[in-house]
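pls read this stuff:
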Amino acid sequence: MANRVKPAVRPVNPHFSSGPCAKIPGWTPALLDKALLGRSHRSPEGKARLKRAIDLTRDILEVPDSHIIAIVPASDTGAVEMALWNLLGERGVDMLAWESFGKGWVSDAVAHLRLQDVRAIEAPYGELPDLAQVDFSRDVVFTWNGTTSGVRVRNGEWIADDRTGLTICDATSAAFAQPLDFGKLDVVTYSWQKVLGGEAAHGMLILSPRAVERLETYTPPWPLPKIFRLTKGGKLIDGVFRGETINTPSMLCVEDYIAALEWAGGLGGLPALIARADANAKVIADWVANTSWAENLAADPATASNTSVCLSILPDASYGLSVEDKAGLPKRMASLLQEEGVAMDINGYRDAPPGLRIWCGASVETSDVVALMPWLEWAFAALTAPVAAP
């Protein structure tokens, strides 16, 4: 039976939200002292800080020199939309969806861009679609890591080397925690507020030479908002990829992102970040293996995320609870743990099956994940004890 006694140890940092995510360990406002406040982002100093953010991104994320990097508006959503509106329509597109955000990109392509040749290759929460169905003579849009389902692609081996279409990858909860195969990816997007715990409202757009060629040889039939425009007169506006942002960025947020990247570099870069996320996710996996009432939403352990870990409560583990009470149990557990100050914002995503979602990215300390596990047991017991079997 689950433990009904409150654990003695609490996580030092109870922030397990899947976005915005926990700040880097030891974060204080003093890290932002160099922020270029009250100055133009177009000043030499402003451009230098933006370029610094891009250069550190290339270094830590191990982006090849062949790819170019831009800071763009509106978080990962803005970066993905920028890619879709600029690049799609030249040929048919296969869109993979196995969670909320992937389904959203399908809706955008069909309902808003009104593309005529869209194939949606879908799977339910907890599973991956059949990747063998993808036709790489077409453009392909997919999420690397399903933030709301906790299911990720294992690697890029399923992507054809001789593809003629573009691969457009929403990598927002994978970047800096999972190895991205840039040789297989023509567009990569993510936001600052995920694995490195940066502030919101800024996105990153990484383009391969093939994506740049598409931009310079194809003009979509719809008008592009100013903040989406990456070309002028059929040529790439290359200043955007040197830190000359399309619109005004927050230099405070830029400094915060730089501080997180410098922290990552001090740890040992991408391998160290991946190792931290893996260690955090393993704590939960080991706990699930020894727990009678919870399971990972990911049906295949090989596809389970190491960042947005999603848990379900086994149907037969909720004792005498009604069907309605069983469905609401994860939300009540999340609320109880938040009241106790041990886990903030761990209820599952609103469109996902009822469950818990625990962020395990590199900014989370493994010791805090370890401390959280007994509290999950306690919360479950506290909410099922009145009807628990003796």
In short: The first helix runs from residue 44 to 61. The radius of gyration is 22 Å. The longest strand covers residues 68-73.
